[in-house]
Amino acid sequence: MSDTPAPPPVRRRETVEKVTALKHRPPTGFLRTYVFSLDHKVIGKQYLDLALVAVVTGMVLSWLMRFHLAYPDVAIPGLGRLAPTRGAGGVMTPELYLSLMTMHGTIMVFFVLTTAPFAGFGNFVLPIQVGAEDMAFPRFNMMSFWVTCVAFLVLLAAFFVPDGPPLSGWTAYAPLSAIGKDAGPGQGGGQTLWALSIAIFCVGQLLGSLNFIATTLDLRTRGMTLMRMPYSTWAWFITSVIGLIAFSVLLPACILLILDRVAGTSFFVPAGLVVSDRLQPHSGGSPLLWQHLFWFFGHPEVYIAILPGFGIVSHILPAFARKPLLGPKIAVGCMAAIGFLSYTVWGHHMFLSGMNPLSATLFSVPTLIITIPATIMVLLWIGTIYGSRLRFTTASLFCLGFVSVFVSGGISGFFLAQPSIDTYLHGTYFVVGHFHFVMGVAAMFGIFAGTYFWFPKMYGRMMNETLGKIHFTLTLIGVYATFMPMHYLGLAGNVRRYSAFTDDYMKGSQPLHRFITMAALFTGAVQLIFLVNLVWSRLRGAKAPDNPWQATTLEWSVPSPPPFDNFGGKHPVVVHGPDEYGGTSPEGDFVLQAAPPASGTA
Amino acid sequence: MRTKHVASFALLVLAASSIAAGPAPRAVSISGTVTFTGTPPKMLKIDMAKEPSCEKQHPTPVMTESVVTGPGSTLANVVVYVSAGDQPGPAPTETVRYDQKGCEYVPHVAVLHVGQPLEIYNNDQTSHNIHPLAKANPEWNKSQPAGSPPIKATYDKPEFIAVKCNVHPWMHGYFAVLGTAHFATTDGNGKFTISDLPPGKYTLTAWHERFGVQTQEVTVGGSEAKADFVFKALPY
Amino acid sequence: MGKLFAVILAVITAVSAGVFIARVWWLPPDISVLGAGIDHQLGETMIASGVLFVVSQLVLAAFVWQYADAGDGRPIKIFPGGATPMVVMATVLVGIEILVLTLVGTKVWAGIFLSPPDPNALHIDVQAEQFAYYFRYPGPDGKFGVPHPELIDDGNGNFFGLDPANDTTARDDIVSASLVVPVNLPVLLTLHAKDVGHAFYVPELRIQQDFVPGLVIPLQFTATETVKKEIVCTQLCGLGHFNMRAYLEVKPPDQFAQWLTEQAAQ
């Protein structure tokens, strides 16, 4: 009997049903339904709302920064009241600029780019996409959101302490961040709150990662083999594995930093430092240790920010191209390769840091090698568009825009990956242009694409497509106008993290900085269209059908919005792959992943 | 008859009370000269190369100011003040002005009473940051970009506070916060005058940032008193 | 909509690439013996990247224009050959490019950071602090005095914490706020930080190096032109980071010797 396939293991279905029976009851009461919800859909939306608050905060900070850079001699109205010490008379002091910059980076990287694409969309969509009724650990899930919220509040508290928010950048290099008040304004309580906030954030993310991994491995419905998982699920799964390791390193690093600041330890501070005329009482620490710990987390972190975007684009593009993704196994392999390689490259942030110059080559090679899977992904997307029947919705436009901006951002990385070129470009605006393209633009386009795509499923209403297309067009122009010129500034040697350009050779860059500021303020204003669309559509949008995009994956086989337990008590059985578009079937040119109801009910 | 009695009685009372009150107190002053013996350390030329907008303002070389001497071995920038025997009074309300000009602190030592308002001005085209390294008072550190409004500060405890600018490491000055309103700083000729002192016995302290502190007892009678100080200079 | 996207993308590509090609904003002329190597590496990378950028954006634009759904129900087409040949070709081409750039680039990198110090190099000790650089020359005795952090007194000009009273080697050390070097002669800097992390960057020299508190880091260069350029800080060090700079003055050897004598006399 060896040639008959063994019947599917009954164990898994029993496990799912047991979990449901024990933990999955519909919520009662306002708090349990909307605040302390165990429902992954609510938690996902809560994460997205948190990210929305964070991104608006981060953007406002960036407008203040950019205005000051373009018009350093113009007093900013109202600044004196917001920041009586550091913005007296509307004049932005250097410490205020650097504090705004630090908080801008921290809020954007952690509370926008690590929450929305991964915890936000992943929480809402992944369980439905794998055919589960909820995440594996709903209580961990709820805790992870509220812990993240607490982390955000602790970070915001840094704005209100007497010494103000820290000014050491989101990278918080020691000893500037480790010494304490002597190091200058902003390095008092604000820096300790920063480290505490990030440590708490790590805990939230670790809980989230555990949930994603367990759910993906254990709660897939019958027929949902790993290779039939949607690409977005794969991306979230790989991201959660990366996150588990990366945040496990950042958490102790932040704790060590706090100990150096308050407990007199010297993990990151060597002996003999004279700061503000005072000999510091530390001895034996290494500033490079902080950099290694931070970037060992920091580099995988940026892949945590972008990989969900890869998954979302790979998921959405076939739906609107009406054809399967080119090279499905290759795409999954590339995402996994990027995830793995992301751990081998952290030293490329440290070529000039004083570590052994031989290690520069050691880190440069895998950094350049990562170009290969990234290039392949881009080719697969472009190859998918070839011969397709492209439908232009806002979601698909943002996917196309993602491809464009990711190429731009990736190419500037190609320069920085080479130590001999980094010798010139390190610390200049070239780097700022690079990471804003990949994180501030590409990852954001992934978030926009996901929003326009899954909004109908989340809220049962359609977003306004006209507003969406205007939003996309103006944003595409705006982001290129804002961030492409930064590469020119970098080539001219314009240094980053400067609150003013008083050096002789940088004075001529003022007109270009003004242009960038205009473009940034324009792009920021355009986002109002998106906000208006979000709010208006939630209240007044046209009612959404179950499958407005004629897509194949499991989330489109349930009502919009889905019932509490996603599948209405039935467990779908999956018989097709995730992107079977382009053929002919009773539904049209696509085939739903789940088998028709007659053959699949539990 | 009765009016005459009342009038002379009133005059008697008036005369008696003025005798009982004693003569009206005359405010006197203490003045003197501060000199030094020995060889003072050489002052070094300040190199302001990193800040051309300040460098331009000094046609002649600028020297460090921790020991400023005058003709006849006199010492400038010595703060002389009454450290005992003085009645505490309210803080003077006039503002003490501290200027940053040409990347230097003017005056090098600003003397003020506890609670007296201090205003710090940036007259340069560059940003400065004022970092008074207070120990008994709260320490603060603020930037003052060109064109900012003046920074207002007061101190509540007497202390000699070193002031530095991190952006221009050569800038160095002092706030002398005193508990008395009777103080003076020696000028370029080493001379000082403390005025408005009621007669009495006082302890005078003279403070110099490099050569330390000296004290003297001075009795102030009806006329101007004299007090001179001599510091021992150290070459390093 | 697709056509609009394609046109916008094409315009953006043309403008962006055009500004790069026209070198409207570009590197300043290099004044270092090692500068040409870096500029060559950068130029090669710029050409390869430029081609990749323009081709990929224009192909994306072209495909979006071409493959918009015309509503005519035409069948979809798979990319000729499927994914595998495209992937193999990409891997090979990118792989070769990476190999070439790494081999050439490592030589350039090694030239700056892995070469043993020239025995004839002029040794200058550099201290970075919040927010200025100070440079120390060994003086006629050729030896640097021992720095004592607890003796540092900026207000009195003792930036390095030297103890000339008790340390004879410190007596002739020359401290300068500008980095003055002779032209066409190798210079070896030893970088150390007094308080927090800083960096040394001279765009014209094409070199950059972080100062790490607790470490003494060597950095070599040879300047090839008599110029006065700025040294700026590229490692965030606090509020005065933007204003932290010193001037590099490259002088002909005789003027340099004269400057050194003048400094020693003070």
Helical residues, percent of chain A = 55-70%
Structural class of chain C: alpha+beta
The poorly predicted ranges of chain C are none
Proportion in β-strands of chain A: under 5%
Query: Which sequence of SSEs, written as H and E, runs from N to C of chain A?
Result: HHHHHHHHHEEHHHHHHHHEEH
Gyration radius from CA atoms of chain C, angstroms: 26 Å
CATH H-level superfamily of chain A:
Cytochrome c oxidase-like, subunit I domain
Biggest sheet strand line-up of chain C: 3-2-1-5-8
Using brief descriptors, characterize the structure shown.
heterotrimer, A: 602 residues, mainly alpha, two-stranded antiparallel sheet, 18 helices, 4 strands, 2% strand, globular, C: 266 residues, alpha+beta, 10 strands
What would you say about this model in short?
With 602 residues, chain A is mainly α. Chain A is built from 18 helices and four strands. A two-stranded antiparallel ribbon of chain A has the order 1-2.
Topology overview:
The complex is a heterotrimer of chains A (602), B (236) and C (266).
Chain A: H1 10-23, H2 30-35, H3 40-70, H4 79-82, H5 94-112, H6 115-130, H7 138-157, H8 189-218, H9 231-262, E1 274-275, E2 278-279, H10 287-321, H11 328-341, H12 358-385, H13 394-416, H14 419-425, H15 429-459, H16 465-491, H17 510-540, E3 581-585, E4 588-590, H18 597-600
Antiparallel strand pairs in A: 1-2, 3-4
Helix pairs in contact in A: 3-5, 3-6, 3-7, 3-17, 6-8, 6-9, 6-15, 7-8, 8-9, 9-10, 9-11, 10-11, 10-12, 10-13, 10-15, 11-12, 12-13, 13-15, 13-16, 15-16, 16-17
Chain B: H1 2-21, E1 28-37, H2 52-55, E2 69-70, E3 74-75, E4 79-84, E5 96-101, E6 104-106, E7 109-113, E8 118-122, E9 128-133, E10 142-144, E11 151-153, E12 159-164, E13 172-178, E14 183-185, E15 191-197, E16 200-208, E17 212-220, E18 225-226, E19 229-232
Parallel strand pairs in B: 1-18, 1-19, 5-8, 7-13
Antiparallel strand pairs in B: 1-15, 2-3, 4-14, 4-16, 5-6, 8-11, 9-10, 9-12, 12-13, 16-17
Chain C: H1 2-21, H2 35-66, H3 83-113, E1 122-129, E2 132-137, E3 174-176, E4 179-182, E5 186-193, E6 198-202, E7 207-211, E8 217-222, E9 228-232, E10 245-251, H4 253-265
Parallel strand pairs in C: 1-5, 4-10
Antiparallel strand pairs in C: 1-2, 2-3, 5-8, 6-7, 9-10
Helix pairs in contact in C: 1-2, 2-3
